[in-house]
Every structure is written in C-alpha cells, then in structure tokens.
TrEMBL record:
Residues 244-335 form the Rieske domain. This is Cytochrome bc1 complex Rieske iron-sulfur subunit. Its cofactor is [2Fe-2S] cluster. Keywords: 2Fe-2S, Cell membrane, Disulfide bond, Electron transport, Iron, Iron-sulfur, Membrane, Metal-binding, Oxidoreductase, Respiratory chain, Transmembrane, Transmembrane helix, Transport. Belongs to the Rieske iron-sulfur protein family. InterPro entries: QcrA_N, Rieske_2Fe-2S, Rieske_2Fe-2S_sf, Rieske_Fe-S_prot, Rieske_Fe-S_prot_C. The gene is qcrA. It holds the Pfam family Rieske.
C-alpha cells in the first residue's frame, strides 16, 4: 500500500503528457441516476390520448385496406394477358399495396409505443435467475405489468385492428402463389408436349435461321427453337411455347459421348440437343463448360454431364435434362426426329 509521502505516488499525480494537457486524478464516475420524468402531451391531455389511439388503429385498418387492394390489383391487372400495360400495372399496384400495408403496420406500432404505451422509466436490478416458484411468479407479474402498461388488454380497438392488419398482410403473398402454375390444366400434359415434331428444323433463337450440321464447330453451344415457333414472331402464346421448347445444341467429339443403346440415334455426328429448362425449378440452363462438357444452372448450381445423357452430377435437380432426338434432312439441316419423350421442366410436377 502506497504511503502518502511516497515520491513515486507524488510523481504520478503531477505527471503531464507531452501535449501539455494536465491529467487530473478524479474519483470513479458516479451513477447520475434517472433524469426527472417529463410527461408527454398524451399523458397530460385525455383528448390527445384519444387522438393518438385513433391514429394507431386507423393506421392498422389502413394496412388492411392496402392488403385487400393488392389482392384486387392482382385480379384487375392480370399478368396472364401478356399485355405490357397489364404487367406494369400488376407489378406497380401490387407492390404499392404491399409496401403501404407493411409501412402502416410499422408506423402504427411505433406511434403506439411512443404515444400510448406507458412512458414511466424504471430500473431493473440484475440478479441471478433460477427456475424457482418465485421466479415464475415474477415472470407472470412482469407479463401482467407489460399488458397493463401497453394497454394491449384494455384497448380493444388497437388490439383488434393490429390482428386484422397482420392477418390481411399475408393475403397478397398467398394470392400471388396462384401465378406459379397454369389454372384448370393438367401440368404434366402441358409439359409433355412442345412444338417439336418429326421433321421440324432447328433454328437459331431469335433470328430463325436454320442450322446446318456442317456449320457447327466443335465445342459450340447454340440456343435453338423450333422453326414453327420462330414463324409465330411473338404472336399470342409465343412465350409459353418458347418456355417449353427452348433447346441448347452442342457439338462434341462423337467418341466423347456415352450413349445408351436406345439413344444411340438421338444424336448426329457428336451433336446433341437438350432442353434448356432446368429440372429443378425451371431456370434456364445456359452455362456450358467446353473442357468438362458440363452444363450449369445459374439459379441453384445444378450441374449436368452432357457426355452421359445430361445426368445430374451436382445440385438439387432431380433428373437429367430431357434430350431432343435429332438428325439431318436431305439438305444437311438439323431436324427433330420427334418431340421430347418425357415432360420438360421442373420435377415437382406430378408425373404419370
């Protein structure tokens, strides 16, 4: 323990840093305690409290109206019409409705806590917590006090409007699920038939130029559509048909292909054609690695081995990419031998 006449202690107390600022030896920081409580306007004026309560439940009911409007916008501006104006309005008004619904809930909750809930400051001492009866009784008491301070149990209009807003905010999302699948149709039937048929030429997407087998270079990957689809020229139904019939055409060395006996005549001189629609959730498979002969889906990183029938070698895809049987016509142009022999697209559809 240092003596009061200790010269080292005296030196520490009188030491000054090189900047010239003196260092004062002070006592430990004292607890300043809570500042005086300042009452809010809503605590002093009952009329202001009523206005605050009305504002809160009005915001919650505004959220309900915005959620209902999002559902109505989905119906009023059907995205299935393929009209640009309907697609824009669909995205705009559904988005605005959902944004307003969530914003009104947030603002209402903040205004509730700032203007209506209890504003009394309190100090909660820290102590060890144990699962004893007294602890459980204290927890029940804490919930009761929180209910009393927030007014959740007493203010029925705020409570009921909040419940209504939260329930209604889910409706737009549930409604949007309707657009994930065609209505009143059998998805397996729809995905089992594309525009490919025997003798139809393979053409470049989107130019519609026929493809000669001799013009395809080794290692090339070409985006292909049926000639009849190119002739539609973006008419009604063009996008739906293209989404099913789009094909990726690749040329490998014939000896690199490992083909089953029943599929040996599905390729031509090392040229193979596979559906571009990933069998996971339908994303476009468009990344081709020439050296490994792997196809990569950019959405969830499923990988397919082109040399082995586009089988899945990595990722969540459940089955290989469907192969389009091809050959050449008398003029050397690539043609389809038939349609796909299995449904294209995601594997979560019910399969017959």
């Amino acid at each position: 323990m240092a003596h009061e006449d200790d010269p080292l202690e005296h030196e520490r107390a009188s030491w000054k840093p090189s900047s010239g600022l003196a260092v004062a030896v002070t006592d430990p920081v004292q607890n300043p305690a809570l500042p005086p409580h300042r009452a809010r306007v809503t605590d002093q004026d009952p009329a202001a409290m009523k206005r605050a309560v009305r504002t809160v439940y009005t915001l919650f009911y505004l959220s309900v109206a915005a959620s209902i409007w999002s559902v109505a916008a989905y119906i009023l501006f059907p995205i299935e019409s393929q009209r640009i104006v309907d697609i824009r309005n669909n995205n705009l008004f559904i988005g605005l409705g959902i944004a307003l619904a969530l914003l009104a809930i947030g603002i209402g909750a903040i205004h509730w806590s700032k203007a209506v809930m209890s504003d009394k400051e309190f100090v909660e001492p820290r102590h060890a917590t144990r699962g004893r009866d007294t602890t459980r009784e204290a927890a029940v008491q804490a919930f009761a006090e929180a209910n009393e301070e927030s007014g959740f149990g007493r203010r029925a209009m705020i409570r009921n409007s909040l419940f209504a807003a939260l329930v209604a905010s889910i409706l737009p999302g549930v409604t949007l699920f309707r657009g994930l699948a065609p209505q009143d149709v059998d998805p397996v039937h729809e995905l089992s038939h594309t525009m490919w048929k025997e003798g139809m030429r393979l053409v470049h997407d989107p130019s519609g130029t026929p493809i000669r087998a001799a013009d395809l270079t080794l290692g090339s990957a070409v985006h292909v559509i049926p000639k009849d689809l190119a002739d539609l020229d973006h008419a009604e139904g063009y996008l739906e048909q293209k989404a099913k019939a789009i094909v990726l055409l690749m040329r490998l060395l014939p000896e690199d292909l490992v083909e089953t006996e029943e599929r040996k005549d599905w390729s031509y001189d090392g040229i193979v054609a596979y559906s571009k629609v990933c069998t996971h959730v339908g994303c476009p498979v468009a990344l081709y690695e020439q050296q490994t002969h792997h196809l990569l889906c950019p959405c969830h990183q499923s990988q397919f081995d082109v040399t082995h029938g586009a089988r899945v070698i990595f990722g969540p895809a459940a089955r290989p990419l469907p192969q389009l049987p091809i050959t050449v016509d008398a003029e050397g142009y690539l043609i389809a031998k038939s349609d796909f022999e299995e449904p294209v697209g995601p594997s979560f559809w019910e399969r017959h």
